[in-house]
Amino acid sequence: MRSKRFKKLPTDTKKSPPVTVEKLIPLVKKNCTTKFDESIDLSLQINNKQKKNEINLRTVVNLPSGSGKKIIVAVVCEGSKVKDAKDAGADIVGGDEFIEKIKSGELNFEKLICTPQMMIKLSKLGKILGPKGLMPNPKLGSVTEDIKNAVTSAKSGQVEIKNDKDGNIGLSLGKKNFSDDKLLKNFNAIFETLEKEKNNVTVKGDLIKSAFLTSTMGVSYKIKLPKNI
Q1: Per the CB 3.0–4.6 Å rule, which of 103, 118, 128, 202 could disulfide with 76?
Q2: Mean pLDDT of the region 127-136
Q3: Mean per-residue pLDDT over the chain, rounded
Q4: Given pLDDT bands bounded at 50, 70 and 90, which one contains residue 75?
Q5: What are the backbone angles phi and psi of residue 6, rounded to the nearest 5°?
Q6: How far is CA 212 from the centre of its chain?
Q7: Residue 202 to residues 11, 129, 140, 152: CA-CA distances in angstroms?
Q8: Domain boundaries in the chain?
Q9: What is the distance in angstroms between the CA of the first residue and the CA of the last residue of the chain?
Q10: How big is the CA angle at 149 (ends 143 and 150), to the nearest 5 degrees?
Q11: CA-based nearest residue to 61, from 222, 169, 147, 167
Q12: pLDDT tens digits for 37-64?
């Protein structure tokens, strides 16, 4: 059943011609008629000329305007790195004892960062961390000696870009209370990252087939894609 609020929103927007994101952002925000601060979300579909699982995108992008979300960041490290992690604002910091807690199922964090030395121990917890998408990864900057920078990036709006088995990518540009300019800066940062990643995968033609913009409880609109994506 659709609510009275939802019935007042525009209909058949998915069938409308693609529109530039600059024009869509204020339109999507106008449809945010709930009482809470909705997210402005981006949905992407990888070009279906590829076979399923042929493209495996996984990278991170630092959103210049932040994500609007508070991320619980945990760090596994020892020695002087403990102070670096705490100074950078990590929510949970620990060594061997923390690893034992993770082993027992305590996963009360959303991002896990560790030093290369501690990754040797964490790698044994793949069955616990892997399915949750929490296993640190050098490519994503979560296995590093520069703990302070990794924590700062995670806290300030770093998000992961990852496609599922059907080629779908979903991520948030920010919140309804963000200015249009801030949301646009985040959108551009995402597509700049995708353009760079295109060179790292085998793709026939464009990497992204289609893109839609919506809000948490709103309707979606098709985006006119930037060139060379």
Answers
A1: 118
A2: 95
A3: 92
A4: very high
A5: -65, -35
A6: 16
A7: 37, 29, 20, 33
A8: 4-67+158-222, 73-156
A9: 38
A10: 35
A11: 169
A12: 999 999 999 886 555 556 788 899 999 9
User: Of the CATH numbers 1.10.10.10, 3.90.550.10, 3.40.50.790, 3.10.20.600, which one belongs to the domain with range 73-156?
Assistant: 3.40.50.790
At 164, which amino acid appears?
D
Task: Report the C-alpha gap between 178 and 183 in whole angstroms.
Answer: 6
The pLDDT of residue 169 is: 96
Q: What are phi and psi of 140, to 5 degrees?
A: -95, 5
